[in-house]
Specification:
The protein is mainly α. Helix content is 66%, strand content 7%. The protein has four helices and two strands. The chain has a two-stranded antiparallel ribbon. Strand 1 and strand 2 form a beta hairpin. Helix 2 crosses helix 3 and helix 3 packs antiparallel against helix 4. It is globular and about 45 Å long.
Amino acid sequence: YYIGRPFGKHKLAPRVSPKKSWEGSFASVIASAAVGTLYVQRFLPGVPLWQAAALSVAANIAGQLGDLAESTMKRGAHLKDSGSILPGHGGLLDRVDSTLFALPVIYAYLRLV
């Protein structure tokens, strides 16, 4: 958001989510690699740095896909928000859309590694 908003020039998926940009998406991946690596190292200290970074990047990309998938469903249903439980937040689904896609990636990593 902080990079995509001021510097985003190339639309990521203009028909689905017109305010998202490739620049913001890339900045999100970079930030998640840095922060996620530190987080994984703190709570799973045995995980090598490269795996922590790779897991963070994969979960971030999956999360962004989840957000776009949820936006696609809302566009298809001609809805602005997915509910009114959380006013001003686009609905409850907007709060969990990224997690719904990122958690299976994290789970697969934990099962396979």
